[in-house]
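Design request, tokens follow.
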């Protein structure tokens, strides 16, 4: 039990690392929280500092979801509650990204970190969601809309590529959380004001 709580705390702390801010400072850029959308995610870093900053932010935000879940997979004992414990660790990583302790609980929208945890739990679902994202982005040229489409399809993808009820419940929860975090984007989309690439 102590092992589970320790892994959950570690996942939250890892998820709280603000890679967008770290990348921007490493590249000599401004604080992204005061420019563009004010978000620390891939899209805002791409708009502010170019593809390199966007790619590094995407990589960091994805890995902070994947690595804690993979570690939990190695450390948690087999048993009937193992998948549920894995799902809790995964949720902690995403919540760390959205509510980071290092930034007074004001973080990102959870898309890349959710992709990271899904990559660890259901790789087939993650692969197909990447394809959907690429096609949606090529068609709409809107980052947020592409992410929202993938969020809507997340429970479907996980349900198709995993028989774990715990993972499916996690996917439903993360899908709803991402949609809530994108409520301002949804308002701009309905008004036709969301920026395109």
């Amino acid at each position: 039990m102590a092992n589970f709580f320790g892994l959950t705390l570690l996942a939250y702390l890892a998820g709280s690392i603000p890679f967008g801010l770290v990348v921007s400072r490493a590249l000599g850029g401004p604080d992204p929280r005061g420019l563009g959308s004010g978000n620390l995610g891939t899209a805002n870093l791409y708009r502010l500092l170019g593809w390199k900053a966007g790619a590094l932010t995407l990589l960091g935000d994805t890995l902070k979801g994947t690595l804690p879940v993979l570690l939990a997979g190695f450390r948690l004992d087999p048993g009937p509650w193992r998948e549920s414990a894995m799902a809790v660790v995964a949720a902690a990583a995403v919540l760390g990204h959205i509510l980071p302790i290092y930034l007074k609980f004001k973080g990102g929208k959870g898309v890349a970190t959710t992709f990271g945890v899904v990559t660890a739990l259901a790789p087939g679902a993650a692969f197909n969601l990447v394809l959907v994202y690429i096609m949606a982005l090529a068609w709409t040229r809107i980052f947020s809309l592409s992410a929202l489409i993938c969020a809507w399809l997340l429970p479907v993808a996980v349900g198709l590529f995993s028989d774990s009820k715990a993972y499916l419940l996690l996917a439903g929860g993360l899908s709803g959380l991402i949609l809530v975090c994108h409520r301002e984007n949804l308002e701009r989309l309905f008004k036709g004001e969301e920026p395109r690439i």
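Comment from the thread starter after seeing the answer: thanks! The two ends are 47 Å apart (CA to CA).
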